[in-house]
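Customer escalation, tier 2.

The customer says the design service returned an amino acid string that "doesn't look like it belongs to this structure." They asked us to rerun it and document both sides in this ticket. The original structure tokens are below, unchanged.
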């Protein structure tokens, strides 16, 4: 799996299953976990329609992993 070190650090800090998915080279599973994280914690107040800072960072990581793998 191609993943930048800064992205890996973010994922290990914020996703419980990140280490196992990265070790297993499970790109699809990791993308699903990031998507679930964004749904749960990535939207800000005001009707929860727009991504908050955490959500935007997760979205950028998801995009990089998707395009690099």
């Amino acid at each position: 799996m191609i993943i930048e070190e800064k992205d890996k650090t973010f994922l290990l800090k914020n996703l419980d299953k990140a280490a196992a998915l990265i070790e297993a080279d499970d790109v699809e599973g990791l993308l699903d976990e990031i998507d679930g994280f964004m749904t749960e914690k990535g939207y800000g107040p005001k009707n929860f329609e727009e991504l908050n800072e955490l959500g935007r960072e997760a979205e950028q990581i998801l995009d990089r992993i998707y395009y690099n793998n």
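Tier 2 assessment: The sequence is consistent with the input. The mean pLDDT is 95. Helices lie at 5-14, 18-23, 27-41, 53-68. Sent an explanation to the customer and offered a walkthrough call.
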